[in-house]
Amino acid sequence: MIVRSLESAANGMLALMDMHDNIANNLANVNTIGYKKGSLRFKDVMESAVYSQKDSIIRNDSNRYLGDLSLGAQSLDYTHDFTQGALEKTNNPYDVAIEGDGFFKIQDIEGKIYYTRDGSFLVNDEQYLVTKQGEYVLDVNNRRIRMIPEDFDPELFRDRIETIIGESGNIEINSYNQKIPLQTIGVFDFSDKENLFEVGDAKFIPLNIEENPELRSEKFTVQQGMLELSNSNVIREMINTIATSRNYESLTKVVSTNSDVLATAVSVGRISL
Q1: C-alpha span between 102 and 96 (Å, rounded)
Q2: How distant is the alpha carbon of residue 265 from its chain centre?
Q3: Which of these, 134, 133, 164, 135, lies nearest to 147 by C-alpha position?
Q4: Mind listing the pLDDT tens digit for each residue in 106-156?
Q5: What phi and psi values does residue 71 have, to the nearest 5 degrees?
Q6: Residue 154 DSSP class
Q7: Rounded to the nearest 10 degrees, how much is the dihedral formed by the CA atoms of 130, 133, 138, 139?
Q8: Which of 1, 36, 131, 210 would give a disulfide with 135, using CB separation of 3.0 to 4.6 Å?
Q9: β-bridge partners, 180
Q10: Cβ neighbours of residue 138 under 8 Å, at least 6 residues apart?
Q11: pLDDT band (50, 70, 90) for residue 1
Q12: Is the pLDDT of residue 177 over 80?
């Protein structure tokens, strides 16, 4: 029984270490634009049936069945909370935020595709809309978005007055009091968000694109001059840190107490011999 108690406490301590790492990651990303906080789900390591001592387990007498005894917990999987983060006004015309469902679709120079809620974009030297890391923002037809028309003289680009991004993601520029329509920023979603894997910098990829293909998002609006902040809450994560630390300390005491009892039992056994 002592060994079983030690095993349960040890499993619980390992699970709390995983939880502490997750909380630390959430705290580290409270200022990351578009970050979605992570959470862990746990499962019992093993459950043993408990019966009355008067009956053997072999008899399987339901009248003497007392219940199940867990031998501790371990991490089952890692999930993200995709609830809406607060929107912050920046007045930067290239900053955009999604209010509602969906992700921006971006492509790096090697052609790899990622999905993100981080809309802190800028225009590179070739006049393409890109992320701060240089990845291309894709439109509704999976094309790179160029912020001037194909037949537009780059020298006249300096005289562009205003960039307008509508709620549906459509881009227009005002040049010489003339509205020129450009491309539409693509906003995509997935039916199974638990199938998404975070690769860092608030970017996600589907674990299985065939089973969980991208969909055109429908319930959203694009907000120009705004950014979606992290949905990780400092106060809540600090409370989780305190609770996790206290639980870990309690299990440490369980391990220490049972270790002392086990050492005493071993010593008594040696004396008897």
Answers
A1: 13
A2: 47
A3: 164
A4: 999 999 999 999 999 999 989 999 999 999 999 999 999 999 887 766 666
A5: -105, 30
A6: G
A7: -40
A8: 131
A9: 173
A10: 105, 106, 107, 144, 145, 186
A11: low
A12: no
Encoded amino acid at 231, one letter: N
Which residue's structure tokens are 């019992």? Answer: 44
* Number of residues in the chain: 273
State which amino acid sits at residue 202: A
Q: Which residues contact 151 (CB under 8 A, 6 or more apart)?
A: none
Q: How far apart are CA 271 and CA 179, in angstroms?
A: 95
Q: Which helix (H) or strand (E) holds 54?
A: none
Distances (CA, A) of 96 to 33, 74, 166, 171, 222: 11, 40, 10, 11, 6
Q: Within a 10 A sphere around the Cβ of 191, how many other Cβ atoms?
A: 10
Element (H, E) at 228: strand 226-228
Q: In the numeric block, which tokens belong to residue 7?
A: 């095993």
Q: Where are the domains of the chain?
A: 2-81+233-272, 87-228
DSSP code, position 265? H
Q: Using CA atoms, how far apart are residues 110 and 129, in angstroms rounded to an integer?
A: 17
